[in-house]
Amino acid sequence: MKVLRLKTNRIVNPMGFLLGRPRLSWTVEEAKGTKQDWARIIVCADAEMKQVLFDSGEDKEASSIAYPLNLELSPRTRYYWQVTVRDDRGETAVSDIAWFETGKMHEPFLGKWIKPQLQKDICPLMRKTFTLPAAPVRARAYFTGLGIYELYINGQKAGDELLAPGCDGYDKWLQYQTYDVTESLRAGENEITAILGNGWARGRFGFDGQAGCFETGERGAPIDVFTSEYLLLGDLVVETAQETVTVGTDMSWQAAPSPITFSSIYDGERQDATVAPEWTGTALADASQLGALTERLSLPVKKMQEFKPKLIITPKNELVLDVGQVISGFMTFRCKLEKGTEVRLSYGELLQEDCFYRDNMRSALCEFRYISCGEEAFVRPISTFYGFRYVKLEGFTGQVMPEDFTAWAIYSDLETTGNIVTANEKVNRLFQNCLWSQRDNFVDVPTDCPQRDERMGWTGDAQAFCSTANFNMDCLAFYTKYGRDMYLDQCQREGAAPHVTPVMVKTAGSWAVGDGAVGWADAATIVPWMTYLFSGDKAILEAQFDSMKDWADWVHRQDETHGGDGLWLETTMHFGDWLALDGAKSGFDPEAVIGGTDNTFLCSAYYYYSNVLVSKAAAVLGKEELAAEYKKRSEKTLKAIRREFYTPGGRCAAATQTGQAFSLHFDLAPQEFRGKILKQLQRLLRDNDMHLKTGFLGTPILCRALSDNGAGEDAYTLFLQEDLPSWLYEVNMGATTIWERWNSVLPDGKISGIGMNSMNHYAYGAVMEWVYRNVCGINPLEEAPGFRQFALKPQPDRRLGSAKATVNTASGLIESGWIYEGDSVSYSFQVPFNTTAQLTLAAEGLKNGCINGQKLIFKEGYASLVLSAGDYSVD
Ligand code: BGC
Known about the structure:
Distance between the termini: 29 Å
Number of helices: 14
Low-confidence stretches: none
Oligomer: single chain
Number of strands: 43
Helix content: 10-25%
Shape: globular
Strand content: 25-35%
Bound molecules: beta-D-glucopyranose
Largest sheet: 10 strands, mixed
């Protein structure tokens, strides 16, 4: 028996996070018993576990999913903890020791906000030398800066994270980071240095602008984001055996131009290694524009995976490195070039006619340039990242050796929890593409795409994909941060949830500052609810309840001002079933974006659904009155929807694939009409040669609506299509991530348009939720979230041959697989310790109808059985 995966707030050994009351979690593996008898949590002040601060005793109720730790915490303190679990057979096991460490909490900074006394556009270095009386026993740097900063102690980078302080609306909220720098300091003279680039705070952001210029150093218009100066704030707290020394930022720090001579999230970075720092002063800065400073919630963005690229020479004689996978990150390289030599790396996602291509990046230049100082160097960008597979090299002298280059995928440090393997290699690739689009778009914020002049936290994309994301990774901490951004933005918009969060852009009228769009703004209710369902930690509902409610209230007010009959009428701009293929312009305009499903129908459907979720969240949090109130609102809307959109004969007036799928999936259609609606959906599919036409809102639920209503065969037919439009079409076309559009690349290999066409948008990857839930049958249950109890109801299909999903849930590892051999199908399941699974299995296809050798009892063609922890095989 092993007690594993110890996390605090679902983060492994978090240092300096905003913890609130910490919630501890763990999972148990290899137990002989099936259930927890008790668990005992001990928290100590020391790693030897001698100075006990908290002892739960043998607690029979202790939740392994989110154990709320009742302990008063002190600032800047590391707490060590350990769990002992006893199972129902009397076996006990003790975990390894985990820890969490608090940040400054309520302690003020000694340091002051400082800025360099340099021309406003020069990316600075800021440093301070100081003397320590003795080597430290423990040293922490609590720092933040704007735009993006990295900290170095005696030339050594503090920590391994990138792009700090992360992406927030800095006028609303700013996070500081905590670094353990004990090993980098010494007795005597020391130096602490920060380097700063533009990042999200200072560069242009939003797609309404023009590219910057590497030659002139112009940052590119509009410069309408948070136009702060370069700012730095921090305390280095050094404990020696005798005393504690704090080195804060103040005017004794010096500043100098850094080698970064151009810096932009979209356009890239330029470094000039010949720049020798000429030190001048710093000044105190006015930080009154900044929002509240807190400990971090952002998971660190790190170099997560490494790729060795291949060198290709294109028909145009270009030197291009091929990473083999579309990633977010950058290329690093080793070089020794003559002084003054400038090299240039251009980043692109795909080749066209076998040559380098990047026109679909729109105004984003996506370049990196480097001027050598004549010495051997290891080079990497500091203040930007790229979405790419191919990198064109220019200016390199001598023979280019691919082994001198390494591509790094960077993303937020989350645990990957899900995996899907089937007998169909193309489906397997599609799953990998989905996972890659998640990694690539999980760079601190759940973005739409990581490459062109957007890379923003588009809420519709986040909402569409969040259930799949929660299967693929342990997303609780990631979405907790996103939720805070969301709520802070809502506070400035009377509760309306934005199109994009965090809102960084300030241009009035830009889409990037808009709000209140159906299926986008509903991320405010859907993301926290789904994350709660998957994680089992109601802290996310506590944190987001006001956000959820404020959003539902905002729509309610729309309803009230337009008649108050329970519908949310289309009175403002909506994206609707974005990129669906059934809009008025579809088929005429290859770059059409508007789908054909009536927006008032979609608005009202989400109005209903968001009220349902607020009501459920209120019930979980014990807010009974609110639960009743929002339930009542949802019922009124459901009635109004039925009145407005369903004919007395049982047809849905939103007569698209998406309209029918919504009717079924969100239980909008009256029970007696469901059969007819399903037939209607099947007819629409047949009329379209069994191909989909759905967009961002319809696609995630299309196959689920079919499978959940007895038409699983049609769902498989859609899923296994290989021509346009289908999921596997892009796999056939060599995609390594999920495309933005069904037809992003045409069958002849040509990109279909460049107005809005990325190779890396995860929204359509949301079909993987259907693979987890319907194909493999793994379903969380609202009555026992976090998979304490779950449903297992796989729906196999011979055409796929076999499928197996493994999900390392908050409750432990669930496995569900099936395989066809000849005419019969057999299943295998793993149910984790301390959970139960409600198995529902069709008799069809089974050879013996046995589970672990015991006969199953079938009723109306199905066997239902409650499984406790263990391994099972059914044949
Ligand atoms: C983004 C989307 C986003 C949409 C809004 C696009 O430009 O890339 O993914 O949701 O705008 O409709």
